[in-house]
């Protein structure tokens, strides 16, 4: 009935980041700042949002289905979240009202006091740990992997909360960037590989943590630095900051796809401008796979920076050959005798007057299932394009992600099923090329990929997973704990 | 409570088209096609939408506050609008639930049967006509100027409905592109000056009318031609089309601002690609007012085509120096100690890594109040831009529109209050230039503006209004009929 | 989705009053008082409610589907209805959201100024008048018969508004108790036969009008007197009251069913206590049709007063043998293998411990279709009653009402289809008796019914309609104006 | 905003039962039957409702704020609760949307499988137990005392679920009638004192449990017997019933106030008709405290049975001197210059024509704060009553309840603050009398109250609490666990 996700494009043939986190301690209006920061991270999770605040004695929470600006839509709402410390979370993957209990930050009253946690990432041995905890009498209130951490903290035998927290994290494998709150202050933490991003900033006397630097920009904070892989930063209510490295030394493996698609182009990630990297991927792509064409046309909006790079490198003019509608709704009734591909046309429409008779290079950031690419190539042909050459600003996506990105099963990934020639035929392009994995590493400033010891997590391209995948390995065992998410409201 | 207009940017310092219309006759699923067509015209009116259909014996209507995809969000809803003929309307200017009665198409049971009307434009003697009708006993159900036409038809003494309709239109002055329905068929009509656009297309055996050609594209119809200024086209249920010219010969004066901003870039208007015209304005602007700079940066999204033209003409690279968020909500609570201009940053954020230390040319389509321009220039400076030169793809907007565009009072138009030098200082730009009126006419393919007999309505730039403005002239007389719109729910 | 009418019992086999009206002039908080007064009249119309107020210069309105306490549920809502004069209306008969435009008070901007009207009753020549008005160019915005009066006022040739109003009413036939507002003040008026009730009261300097005296009680006003049949009372903003008799002399025929069922027992009607009359009907019924039984059991709640009278006259003890639930919802999903008649049991449940083995007299106010009576008799038998005698506190309901009461078609009235013996068998009662028409007249204080010149409208019992029924007579003629109510939203 | 509780009378100066439970196993449409059964128990809890079902492999739940007929308002909703076993719960005490997590049945995935619990009563050592559980690492998801039982089951060391459940209950003190579900079947259980009621019935092959027998009537089931105090009944999916007595022998102490007010008059409780007991209280009251008066008038609706008994015993006629509105909303805006006590008048209005000049005996079931009694006495005087004698069908309510009834603090109970003479003056009655405690015991069929060993829990009248009140005793100790219910949403 209500149209909670007007921006969500369910047909979107894209990998989707599953979460964004934001936290602030020491700010007069922490809740309003958190709402604004989450709004800047909305692209990381558009289905649900939650916030928890602490006013020195009590914790307060509010969660809802929908966008930040829908759920936190009034001064009254924010006034219900008082205090100088607040943290929040945006997410995908929650369907229907029944999922309210899965919306983060999760909160529990532990013996030591209140504890909240907001998590970006995915724990790859969550089911294994949950089974053991339930045997010991733990009762789970959500189906979120994140809740495992809370129960591990609650049942740890260590004396201090920080010790119990580290004890819990040592049992966990996978990807996590966490923002936690206790009555003592805020803890921000990144897994030893640093798979998901997390940055720290400052505004006045307040300390801010966020998934991406753009959230610092928008609230007016300055970027201090990123939280290092394996680092745990504690901030108390006096503003005293302490850094811990409880996991020893690891080679970090941050997600390279953040540079390709997930992060906003105006973010700075691992010290590099995302926009700059994307343009540079376009440059590499033009060097590797130049097409003889009249126009460079981005698939909007994610293909735009690479297309600008490709155009500048190649000298072929950059033009808007596809116009994107800003009003893409989730469901729309199709007329049965309407146009072919009306669903795509609602979102993207050919700039026919421009395209007609021209040889074009289409630039997109990635190909997942290939269905959208096929429709867009056809749209260009229907608009009269003489030739359509597709260039993709990432290597072929052949493997699923288990670190907090919503990927289809491997069998549905076009690149897992076909070679490039077959893919070109499938999408009906005159030619198709992907940037090489080394080209991608060059664009992020490396000389190339270190085979023995890759600098990034690039498992979706290479299948080289940097952690064990315990739950996946155990999945064949039937297990009462692998309940469907919507089993009980 | 509900967040009906997530896309609406109330701070948007833009002129706004007030309406879009769509109609189809002879299609199996007329209502679904109309919903899709209105969706493609959503940029012309984002606050409310209505649709009326006819199934051969009865008329059916549904109206609602919100976007097309919100109001017509289910197959059940569309099933309540049966029949092979349907028409619809999107609009701005309706605030709150109380305005349901003003949502078009308006409908009345006349003695001759049902009559519906959807109107894009504004009748400049509506108050004058309404006062006279009320004296004779007419009871108005809306505060819309459009209702005047229905009452004129209802009380006309001519025998046939077509004669009564023409009789009514002859009393009306101003801008109107109309799509009407009777039990006999559909009537599309454009005022003698053709101020607002209206096109005709075909899909299979069905005839389609729409404000812009993009709506034909999206439903899969082919463009036949535009309805000519002063033309009235009738289509009956057998598909027989007849054209009438009831108003004699006029020099047409279509709105030139449709080319500058209102229409979608993928529409074709007066035989010209809107995208092409906008790029050409950028070219003219670069010829007239070249800036010595490192980067050409569009104010997204409306400044992009002119910026591409400016970049191509000048050789200065086109870059995305401002990133636009897709998640702009209507209301948002500001943290009091947040950044300066957080409201603008929610929508637009500087690509700091790109801009820092650079001399930039900002390209926008127009300047209305100047408040947004001022904030964006400041955002570029805060991001480290060395120089900021503003170039505007239209002449200074000095006059209000009375033909269906929502303009602020003249006293709030920056160009009505200042000369260009003062404006540059107000927005804090290093330099400011507008395209000349002749440059604009060149971009639409003319040699220049014909002074004695302008080819377009350009009153917002020149003050040269092509019709009388009766209500405006009579406004000093106190009048019980000039009731506030929301007086009675 | 929302459960707007939790109290409404759609299965209720009852005739239903269709409207209640309330108005006040000269009160500081007229809107709050009107809400409270309408709340006391809620039993006269539970589906929709509207209110219009006047603050000395503007009129304000709000309407909604649901109960008074749902629609006027906040101080903010009432603050939107400022001024010292207000009137309101509760009604049945509006289905779905589409009926908003039919919710009264209706309002129009006439040449002489604003005019609002709230109507209890039914105009029996409305279609005839509407056809004529539409021929002359009138455009109707509702499908309510009441709107005819507004158009007649708008098009009357008389000079003053009062003359135009009387001119309009002279063309109208049927039942109407009206509360109107103009910028000059309030007009209350009752049709020449006085079919529907209307009373006048005073609180401080304010004058109050209402359908029933209970509304005066609840707002704290004292009853002055009823508006006489054919009387028109005007009150201006200074509190000056003038009474007019524009229709000459008639024999009044107020509705006798108001005493039987419609009015609240705590109202005083035609100078008589409704509760007292109902008890007296029970006394007459016991005199006419004594049953040899152990217990007198009312069908709650409407049968209670007559049952008390019957018990007092007969000496048989009054007992609650049927318990009524207060939580009767509109829709409820039946278990397929649940009890027989679970739908009735949700509302009424047998007090089995009391009834078992007893001979009982059931007292109900009326029998309409007989379906509920049949179920209740069966419920008593299932609970172990030895004998079930039904006594009814009104004569057999054989005819439809055309004066503002929702009656089924005549063919569905049990008494129109069967004699009393057959009715007894249909409802499976051991005996069945109705009070006689003269017994009913005795209960309201008459010696009996005057055959030539009945003192009340009792057409539902006798078929003796006191007015012409023009629309009914013309109904065979197909007519484009008899549109279904929900044709256009 | 929404008006979820139109029936709820917050001003109601009554003690309130806090919960009702219903369960069925072995029925084809268990969810629909449960909804119907809960609807019949709606008077036991009007603020929230929940249901859980089991289809042989999975558990399903739905909960909501509002009435049964609002929350389970569609076939689709019930279809989401498949299976032949279902149980549900209605409750008071949940304020705002934040309380969703406290709505029962509570559900947990234990190591042994799913476990649901619905509870009527109150655990008087819940805080004490909770503190201990949290120390051991338990994480509570609700603030309900009932959740303690689940954690005790989850952490018990006994091997079978039944043993773990009994182990848990042995640690619990207070009042509980429970309906639990596991994958093996249904368990119904009543605390050793049998404070709250619970009955068992049969319909076809299905077994039904409910708080009151009226719920069996309404779903068409026959009453088998009550669950005995201290009894635990297990029913498996084959319909095999086993009874256990795990707590040894106790003297039962069922709540006597169920007879006075909580239960529906058409229920049978402890083998006695509730209606019959209430009438007999009226008889005892007339014997003990006859008043010299003209009319016996019940305070509707709860005073009606005792008033009938009083009238029959005394020979004074029973009359409806107070008319109750069925449309009592939660919030209502008062006109400032309206009548005195308009809030009471919305609910109760004097039948002035009856009362005027008469000496009346008012019969009410109980006096709590006395505020409503005061207003009703005044209402009778304002309506012209010559004398007002109040008779109360229970002894003075001097003590709070800690067993599942919502009572004000002791200091707000009128009878805890004043003697009877002072109470008579406070409510402004000409005389006031309460039934004696022995009279009350006689009405339930005893010879009188056994002083040493009372047959019922009558602590609200006598202060003789049948269990320890551990949490109350420990309340002085500050405790982080006594969190306000709405602390975290």
TrEMBL record, chains A, B, C, D:
[4Fe-4S] cluster binds at residues 255, 401, 457, 460. Binds 1 [4Fe-4S] cluster per subunit. Its EC number is 2.4.2.14. Mg(2+) binds at residues 302, 364-365. Coiled coil: none annotated. Residues 19-238 form the Glutamine amidotransferase type-2 domain. The keyword Iron-sulfur applies. The active site is at 19 (nucleophile). One of its GO terms (molecular function) is amidophosphoribosyltransferase activity. Its cofactor is [4Fe-4S] cluster; Mg(2+). It holds the Pfam family Pribosyltran. It catalyses: 5-phospho-beta-D-ribosylamine + L-glutamate + diphosphate = 5-phospho-alpha-D-ribose 1-diphosphate + L-glutamine + H2O. Keywords: 4Fe-4S, Glutamine amidotransferase, Glycosyltransferase, Iron, Iron-sulfur, Magnesium, Metal-binding, Purine biosynthesis, Transferase. Signal peptide: none annotated. In the C-terminal section; belongs to the purine/pyrimidine phosphoribosyltransferase family. Catalyzes the formation of phosphoribosylamine from phosphoribosylpyrophosphate (PRPP) and glutamine. This is Amidophosphoribosyltransferase. It comes from Novosphingobium anseongense. The lineage of its organism: Bacteria, Pseudomonadati, Pseudomonadota, Alphaproteobacteria, Sphingomonadales.
């Amino acid at each position: 009935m209500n149209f909670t996700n007007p921006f969500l494009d369910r047909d979107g043939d894209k990998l989707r980041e599953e979460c964004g986190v934001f936290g602030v301690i020491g700010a007069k209006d922490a809740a309003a700042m958190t709402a604004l920061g989450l709004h800047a991270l909305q692209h990381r999770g558009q289905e649900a949002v939650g916030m928890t605040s602490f006013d020195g004695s009590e914790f307060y929470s509010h969660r809802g289905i929908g966008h930040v600006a829908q759920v936190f839509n009034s001064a009254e709402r924010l006034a219900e979240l008082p205090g100088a410390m607040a943290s929040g979370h945006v997410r995908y993957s929650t369907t229907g009202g029944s999922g309210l209990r899965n919306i983060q930050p999760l909160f529990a009253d532990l013996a030591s006091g209140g504890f909240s946690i907001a998590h970006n990432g995915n724990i790859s041995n969550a089911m294994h740990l949950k089974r053991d905890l339930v045997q010991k009498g733990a009762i789970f209130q959500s189906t979120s992997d994140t809740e495992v951490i809370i129960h591990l903290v609650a049942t740890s035998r260590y004396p201090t909360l920080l010790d119990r927290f580290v004890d819990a994290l040592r049992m966990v494998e996978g990807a996590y960037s966490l923002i936690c709150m206790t009555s003592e202050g805020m803890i921000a933490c990144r897994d030893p590989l640093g798979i998901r991003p997390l940055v720290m900033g400052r505004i006045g006397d307040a300390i801010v943590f966020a998934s991406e630097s753009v959230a610092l920009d928008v609230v007016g904070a300055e970027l201090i630095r990123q939280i290092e892989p394996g680092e745990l930063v504690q901030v108390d209510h006096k503003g005293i900051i302490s850094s811990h490295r409880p996991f020893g030394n690891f080679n970090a493996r941050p997600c390279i796809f953040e540079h390709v698609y997930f992060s906003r182009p105006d973010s700075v990630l691992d010290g590099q401008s995302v926009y700059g990297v994307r343009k540079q991927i376009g440059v590499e792509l033009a060097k590797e796979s130049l097409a003889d064409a009249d126009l460079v046309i981005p698939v909007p909006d994610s293909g735009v920076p690479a297309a600008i790079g490709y155009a500048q490198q190649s000298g072929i003019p950059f033009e808007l050959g596809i116009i994107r509608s800003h009003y893409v709704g989730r469901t729309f009734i199709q007329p049965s005798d309407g146009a072919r591909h009306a669903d795509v046309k609602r979102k993207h429409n050919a700039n026919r007057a421009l395209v007609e008779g021209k040889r074009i290079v289409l630039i997109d950031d990635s190909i997942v299932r290939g269905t959208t690419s096929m429709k867009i190539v056809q749209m260009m042909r229907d608009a009269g394009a003489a030739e359509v050459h597709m260039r993709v600003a990432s290597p072929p996506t052949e493997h699923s992600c288990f670190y907090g990105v919503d990927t289809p099963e491997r069998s549905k990934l076009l690149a897992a099923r076909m070679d490039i020639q077959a893919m070109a035929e499938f999408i009906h392009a005159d030619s198709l090329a992907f940037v090489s994995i080394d080209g991608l590493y060059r664009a992020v400033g490396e000389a190339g990929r270190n085979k023995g010891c890759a600098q990034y997590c690039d498992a979706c391209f290479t299948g080289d997973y940097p952690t064990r995948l315990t739950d996946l390995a155990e999945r064949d065992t039937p297990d009462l704990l692998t309940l469907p998410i919507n089993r009980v409201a």
